[in-house]
Automatic annotation (TrEMBL):
Residues 295-329 are annotated as: Disordered. The chain crosses the membrane at residues 368-386, 398-421, 441-465, 485-507, 514-536, 577-597. Keywords: ATP-binding, Membrane, Nucleotide-binding, Transmembrane, Transmembrane helix, Transport. Pfam families: ABC_tran. One of its GO terms (molecular function) is ATP hydrolysis activity. Residues 2-228 form the ABC transporter domain. Belongs to the ABC transporter superfamily. The keyword DNA-binding does not apply. This is ABC transporter ATP-binding protein. It comes from Streptosporangium nondiastaticum. PANTHER family: ABC TRANSPORTER, ATP-BINDING PROTEIN (PTHR43335:SF4).
Length: 602
C-alpha cells in the first residue's frame, strides 16, 4: 500500500511548485491511476514519492518510509521511462546483473523474461530492442525482486494497441494477485479502462479521487462529435428539437456543447438524429462520429444556449470502437501469466554487490577492449625503446618513455577504473530514473575490489608480456632481473592500482568517465611536481629506522620478513609519485564518503 500525504515539491525561482499538497492512496489488490494532462505534475509526484526530488510531505510504503525499507527492490518495482541499460548488453545479461543488485538468484532473470514474453529474445542486445520490447524489459526488471508495489510512469506511451492491451492485462493480473499498482496516464479513457481508482490532478493539486465507475459516470460520456461551418446554427436547431422532444417525453435529455469554432459535442443523441436535423435545415457537415467525450477536470461546460447541462447519465452498454479493438487485441495476445515466485527469496548478503560488479564489468566488451589496447600499446612502446637503446631498463620493461606522463598499462587501468562508475552514470541501470546512481558504500567496496584485481592483472600481464616479447626479439641479455626486482614489482603494481582507484573515485564523485581520466592524468602532471618541489627541501627528521622502532614498541613480535616489507612500502611512499597517489586517493575517498552521507534522505 502506498500512502502519499501532503507531497509538495521544492518551488523553483518565481514559479509555483510542480506538486502542491498532494494526498492520495494506492491500495493493494487495486490499480490506481494518477491522471493528468501533460505538465499536470504526475511525474514530479512520482519522483517525490520515490525520494528522487527534494520536497516536503510523507510517502509510506506499507506503513514505512522508503529509507526505512531494508531492501527497496523487494518492496517497489519502478518503471520510469525507457530501460537505462548499456546498448551492447543482452537482455539476459542485463537482468542477471540487476538480480545480483537486488539480491535474488540469477535464475530469476529467466523467470521474468518468460513472464513478459521475451524468452526468445534473451540473447538480443538492448540497442536492437523496439519500444514495446524495451517496455517489457523494463517491467521485467521491476519484477525481479518480487515487489509488493509497482510504480509506472505512462508505461503505455506511444505503444501499439496490441502492446498496450498486453500491458493493461499484465497490470490487472498483478493487482488481482494482491499487488498495489500505481500508474500515471494523460488519457481519461485509458484510466477508465484499467483503473479501480482514479486520482485526478491539475497543476500539481488534487482535483478528484474517485472510484472508476464514478469517474466514468462523471467525466466520460458518450457523445456525437460534429464539425460544421454553421456550428452555431446547428446548435440552436438541435437545442430546439431537444427541448420539444423533452416536453413530449420527459425522460430524454439531450445536451449540446459548443467546443469553439466549428465543433460541437452532442450528448444523449445519435449520429442518425444529428444528421437528419442537419439535413432538414440544409446545414453542411464536415464531420459526424460517435466517441467517448472527456468533460475534463473542470466544472461542466455551459450549453450552447447558455443553460447548465443536465446531470450526467451513465455510459450505455455499447463499447466504443477503439475500446473494442483493444479488447480484441488483448484476447489475441492470450492470458497474462504472473511469475512463478519462490515462497521466500533469500536475503541479500555482502557478496551480492560483488557479483553485480563482476557481471557489469564482464557483460560488455568495453573493459576487455581497453585492456587489450593497453597491452598492445605497452608492448609496442617497449619494443621501440629497446630498439633505440639508451632508456633505463625499468622504463623499457614497463613501456614508459620519458615523454609520457603515464605508461600505457597504467593509463589503461585508470580508464578501466573510471569506466566502473562512468558507465553507471551514463547507463544508470541501478536507479529508477535517468542520471543518478545510488551512492552505497557496499557498491563502492565491490567496485574497488574488482578494479583492484583488474589493475593488478593488467600490471603483471603487461610486465610479463613486454619481457617475453623483448627476450624473443632481442635476446635474453636485453632483459635481466635487477637486484631490487621485488621493490620495482611492488612499485609498478602499486602505481597501476593507485591510478585505477583514482579514476574510479573521481568518476564516482564527479559523475563522469572523462573527469575520472582527467583525475588520473592530474596525478603525474600536477600533483607530482608540486610534491616534488616540497620534498626536495632538506628535512631535519627522516623515517629511517622506523621498522626497528615499531618492532621494539610492539607487544607482539612479528617475523623479521615484515621489516623488509615495511621498508619497501616506506621507500615507495617516500617517492613523489607515491605521496601524490596517497594524497589524491585520500582526498577522493573522503569526498566520496562525505557525498554518501550528505545524500542520504532526511
Amino acid at each position: 500500500m502506498i500512502q502519499a500525504i501532503g507531497l509538495t515539491s521544492a518551488p523553483q525561482r518565481n514559479r509555483f511548485p510542480a506538486v502542491d499538497d498532494l494526498t492520495f492512496e494506492a491500495r493493494p489488490g487495486r490499480v490506481t491511476v494518477l491522471l493528468g494532462a501533460p505538465g499536470a505534475g504526475k511525474t514530479s509526484a512520482l519522483r517525490l514519492l520515490l525520494r528522487l526530488d527534494p520536497g516536503r510531505g510523507v510517502a509510506l510504503f506499507r506503513g514505512r518510509p522508503l529509507d526505512r525499507v531494508p531492501h527497496p527492490t523487494r518492496e517497489i518495482g519502478v518503471v520510469l521511462g525507457d530501460v537505462p541499460g548499456h546498448p551492447a548488453r543482452t537482455a539476459r545479461g542485463h537482468l542477471r546483473m540487476l538480480s545480483a543488485a537486488a539480491g535474488v538468484p540469477a535464475e530469476r532473470a529467466d523467470d521474468v523474461l518468460e513472464v513478459v514474453g521475451l524468452t526468445g529474445l534473451a540473447g538480443q542486445r538492448l540497442g536492437d530492442f523496439s519500444l514495446g520490447m524495451d517496455r517489457r524489459l523494463g517491467l521485467a526488471a521491476a519484477l525481479l525482486g518480487d515487489p509488493h508495489t509497482l510504480v509506472l510512469d505512462e508505461p503505455a506511451h506511444e505503444l501499439s494497441p496490441r502492446e498496450t492491451a498486453w500491458l493493461h492485462g499484465m497490470l490487472r493480473a498483478y493487482a488481482d494477485h494482491g499487488g498495489a499498482v500505481l500508474v500515471t496516464s494523460p488519457d481519461p479513457r485509458e484510466a477508465a479502462r484499467i483503473a479501480d481508482r482514479v486520482v485526478t490532478i491539475d497543476e500539481g493539486r488534487l482535483v478528484a479521487d474517485q472510484e472508476a465507475a464514478e469517474f466514468s459516470r462523471t467525466r466520460l460520456r458518450p457523445r456525437v462529435a460534429v464539425q460544421s461551418p454553421l456550428a452555431g446554427r446547428l446548435a440552436h436547431a438541435l437545442t430546439a428539437e431537444a427541448d420539444e422532444a423533452a416536453a413530449a417525453e420527459p425522460g430524454q435529455a439531450v445536451e449540446v456543447v459548443q467546443e469553439g469554432g466549428s465543433k460541437l459535442s452532442v450528448y444523449g443523441s445519435t449520429c442518425a438524429v444529428v444528421g437528419e436535423t442537419a439535413y432538414r435545415h440544409g446545414i453542411l457537415l464536415h464531420r459526424l462520429t460517435e466517441e467517448i467525450g472527456d468533460t475534463g477536470p473542470v466544472p461542466p461546460l455551459l450549453r450552447a444556449d447558455g443553460r447548465r447541462p443536465a446531470p450526467s447519465a451513465p455510459p450505455p452498454a455499447g463499447t466504443p470502437e477503439g475500446v473494442r479493438a483493444e479488447e480484441q487485441d488483448a484476447a489475441a495476445a492470450g492470458p497474462v501469466q504472473l511469475p512463478r515466485l519462490q515462497p521466500r527469496l533469500p536475503a541479500p548478503d555482502p557478496a551480492w554487490p560483488l557479483r553485480y560488479e563482476l557481471r557489469r564489468a564482464t557483460g560488455v566488451r568495453t573493459g576487455w577492449i581497453v585492456a587489450a589496447a593497453s597491452l598492445a600499446a605497452s608492448l609496442l612502446v617497449a619494443v621501440l625503446l629497446a630498439r633505440s637503446g639508451g632508456a633505463p631498463e625499468p622504463r623499457v620493461l614497463t613501456g614508459w618513455p620519458a615523454l609520457l606522463p603515464l605508461p600505457p598499462a597504467v593509463f589503461g587501468a585508470g580508464l578501466v577504473g573510471a569506466l566502473a562508475f562512468g558507465q553507471e552514470f551514463r547507463y544508470p541501470a541501478l536507479a529508477p530514473d535517468q542520471g543518478t546512481v545510488p551512492r552505497r558504500l557496499g557498491l563502492l567496496f565491490a567496485k574497488l575490489t574488482v578494479t583492484a584485481v583488474a589493475a593488478v592483472l593488467l600490471a603483471l600481464a603487461s610486465l610479463f608480456l613486454d619481457a617475453g616479447a623483448l627476450g624473443l626479439l632481442f635476446g635474453n641479455d636485453v632483459v635481466s632481473l635487477p637486484r631490487d626486482w621485488a621493490v620495482l614489482l611492488a612499485g609498478w603494481t602499486a602505481l597501476t592500482l593507485g591510478c585505477a582507484w583514482a579514476g574510479l573515485l573521481a568518476a564516482g564523485l564527479f559523475r563522469s568517465t572523462a573527469l575520472g581520466v582527467v583525475a588520473v592524468l592530474a596525478v603525474p602532471t600536477l600533483v607530482v611536481p608540486v610534491l616534488g618541489s616540497v620534498l626536495a627541501e632538506p628535512a631535519a627528521r627522516s623515517l629511517v629506522g622506523l621498522p626497528e622502532r615499531l618492532r621494539s614498541a610492539a607487544v607482539v613480535q612479528w617475523p623479521s620478513g615484515v621489516d623488509r616489507g615495511v621498508s619497501t612500502a616506506l621507500r615507495l611512499v617516500s617517492q613523489p609519485v607515491g605521496w601524490a597517489l596517497a594524497l589524491s586517493l585520500g582526498a577522493l575517498l573522503g569526498a566520496y564518503v562525505l557525498a554518501v552521507f550528505r545524500g542520504r534522505p532526511r
